[in-house]
Every structure is written in structure tokens, then in C-alpha cells.
Amino acid sequence: MTRRGGTFGIPVAVAAIGLIALIAGLLGDGAVDWIAWAGLTLPLALIAIAVGRTVRH
Q: How far apart are CA 41 and CA 21, in angstroms?
């Protein structure tokens, strides 16, 4: 079974979300800062999930 986007689809999506979050954090204020914070937390959350799956197996 092949995934849409190939090998780099998910990493590119995570990088794009991170870039948008960085730009929003630099240019926005107030609620936009919270959105930027959430977007920048996404890679850390994905790493934690991957490590959790590795430790269990």
C-alpha cells in the first residue's frame, strides 16, 4: 500500500506547518501567538508519539 505524497509527504507537511507557525509567531499578536505555539508544538508531539511507539515494542 502506498501513501499519497510518497516518502516525504508527512515530513514536508510538518515542515510547512512549522514554517507557517514561525511566520505567524513573528507577525501576529495575541491569539495568533497561541496558534503559532500550537503549530510549533506539533513536531515535538510527533517525536514523543514515535518514541512512545518504539519503547513499547
A: 10
